[in-house]
Amino acid sequence: MSAATREAPLAPRAGKGTGHALELRALSKRYGAFTAVDAVSLRVERGQFLTLLGPSGSGKTTILMAIAGFVAPSEGAVLLDGRDITALPPERRAFGMVFQGYALFPHMTVAENVAFPLRVRRLSRAEREAKVRAALDLVQLDRFADRRPAQLSGGQQQRVALARALVFDPDLLLLDEPLSALDKKLRAELQEELKALHRRVGRTFVNVTHDQEEALSLSDQVAILNHGRLVQMGAPAALYERPRTRFVADFLGTSNFLRGTVQEAGDPGLALQAGGTRLLQAGADLPPGSPVLLSLRPEKIALLGEAERAANEVAGTIAAWAYLGAGYSLTVRTADLGALRVALPAWRAPIAPSEGLPVRLGWAADAAVPVLEDADAA
Amino acid sequence: MNGGHPAGPLARFLAWGTVFYLLLPITIVIPVSLTDQRYLSLPQEGLSLQHYARLLGSEAWLSAIGQSLWIALGATAVSVVAGTLCAIGCWRIGRRSSELVRVLMLLPLIIPSIVYAIGLYRWFGWLDLLDRLLGVTLAHGVTGIPYVVITVSTALAAFDPRLEQAARGMGASLGQTLRWVILPRIMPGILSGAIFAFIHSWDELVMVLFIASRQVVTLPRKIWDGINENLDPTMAAVAVLLILFTVLLLALDGAVRSRAGR
Fold it and tell me: Is B170 touching A (CB cutoff 8 A)?
């Protein structure tokens, strides 16, 4: 820890670039024949909020544990500000960590829990008390200092865990599915708090989750993992709008997949043949004859009125529908493209959905994105 | 358990029968200790506390109680330290080899104590520990380890390993983690093991018969000698005090457990 960070515990650090940069170089972890993490390389800039997102068994928690020092990588390196820390034991790294289920010490009060990392560092009582108060203030729990963790609600325990992880001014804050134990409403609330907290303390955060909404709303950068491999990393909007593979498109939000063959490559884009339907796709350059897989988001498909035209049009009938409050989710059966999911705003919807209703669907040439089949899709 | 069917008459009869069968031999010593006769018998004409008075006035009995107490305390200390460290070590390693260590630690419980005592006799002869307080304390301490290993391992099984990770992640050394996180959480298990180790030493006779003779005379040994030599009702008084003491310790253990369960 540098002298500068010691002077200003938990003081607001304006803007980005005040935290520490983290880099993973070809990190692998094998348990016998099973490869939990397979040559993952990534970089988090100072003060950024990175989320490792993936289904269970994708290796995201193993990566977090390797960053914390609890798991020794089989190969590769962990670097903090360019310094190799792969061999450091967890107590020498001392990154703040919020565990799944919080791991608060049940035999200590809230204040004693938050003071624990300071006690370990042999700070004087006065210093300890001041920092604990500041940390509990930060998460608005100053009134609960003398309670035991068991006397607090899930959301409050979560905030105690955050205060404890931040009180000693760690270089990194690691979060292992911090919100997964909370109900939906509370989760949304704490997401916002977490985001605000990240802005206020300006530290580098690394979060692990399988909740794509959480990943999209919290993060500066999202790394999508599957089968221990890094599939794609980028800003949330970039990942959502330009998924590289079928897995990313499917895991982040929902997507329709259209399979076709390139007929002509030219202006304004590719002409594809998908069954008996001719599709127009912008922004891709492939020679005629090559197979193409398109990802098309349900909200980018429109219901066309009598006289309306679109670059791509297809007719079908509603096979199933559900009312979701904000919108309708329709499943439309088409002759050539199979079943398509369509999201329709409910307010002033152009039709009243019913099963068997014939509809015309349309989307722009730049609505869909060509994606790759995942190498291990089988 | 609520809401189930009540037990049938046969089950009740069997249950109470078993309880009486277990308790009767113990309770018989209570009237015997209050006998007004000069030999081991049930009271004939009235109750008397004379044997309790004799016990408290007897140098030999009091010395036996004192020696037993010191041996039991020393043995408990040995068992608690070794047993707790062993249980924590096995828990931290968490591999199959540690399972083997745990089974090995239970050996004194499994091997007939007379076999163990013969072995001890040989070893203590060479080590010059026969008929010495230290020897008996060590023997009782080592054979008390299984009780501590069992209770501490049980407490550790309920211990969330993420608490240890959390402590170390915040920079705590192994010693600090042990002192501030692990030990406070498993303290009820340690206390419980300590009580059992104490009781084990307090009423152990077989090993003492082998490794002690004149200098060291524990309470069970004194009772044993008393039964062989004369039928003094003072022994019944001693037995009653022993029972009360053990019941007290078990009640203490119950209190520790119920506090831990909170």
Answer: yes
Do A354 and A305 form a contact (C-beta atoms < 8 A)? no
Surface-to-core class of residue A111, CB atoms within 10 Å of its CB (0-12 exposed, 13-18 middle, 19+ buried): buried
From B172, B180, B181, residue closest to A91, measured CB to CB: B172
- Number of domains within chain B: 2
Cβ B181–A90 below 8 Å, yes or no?
no
d(CA A181, CA B120): 56
**Which residues fall within 8 angstroms of residue A140, CB to CB, at 6 or more apart?**
A159
CB B206 within 8 A of CB B114: yes
Looking at the fold, whether B21 and B149 belong to one and the same domain comes out as no
B178 and B66 belong to one structural domain: yes
Q: Does B126 lie in the same domain as B39?
A: no
Q: Read off the CATH number of the domain in which B246 is found.
A: 1.10.3720.10
User: What ipTM was reported for this prediction?
Assistant: 0.73
- Report the alpha-carbon angle A129-A131-A136, nearest 5: 95
* pTM across the whole model: 0.76
Show residues of chain A in contact with B262, CB under 8 Å. Answer: none
- In this structure, is residue B134 part of a structural domain? yes
Q: Domain limits at B13?
A: 9-48
Q: Are residues B161 and B228 in the same domain?
A: yes
What is the least distance, in Å, from the CA of A207 to any CA of chain B? Answer: 16
- B2 occurs within a structural domain: no
Within this chain, do residues B111 and B200 fall inside the same structural domain, yes or no?
A: yes
Number of A to B CB contacts under 8 A, please give it.
65
Interface test with A, best of B168, B178, B186 (most A CBs within 10 A): B168
The closest CB to that of A90, out of B160, B169, B184, belongs to B169
**The tokens of B8 are what?**
């049938």
User: Tens digits of per-residue pLDDT, A302-325?
Assistant: 999 888 898 899 999 999 999 999
Domain membership of residue B3 (yes or no) is no
Q: Is B176 an 8 Å CB contact of chain A?
A: yes
Residues in B closer than 8 angstroms to A71, CB to CB, are: none
Whole-number mean pLDDT of chain B? 87
**Same-domain status, B69 and B141:** yes
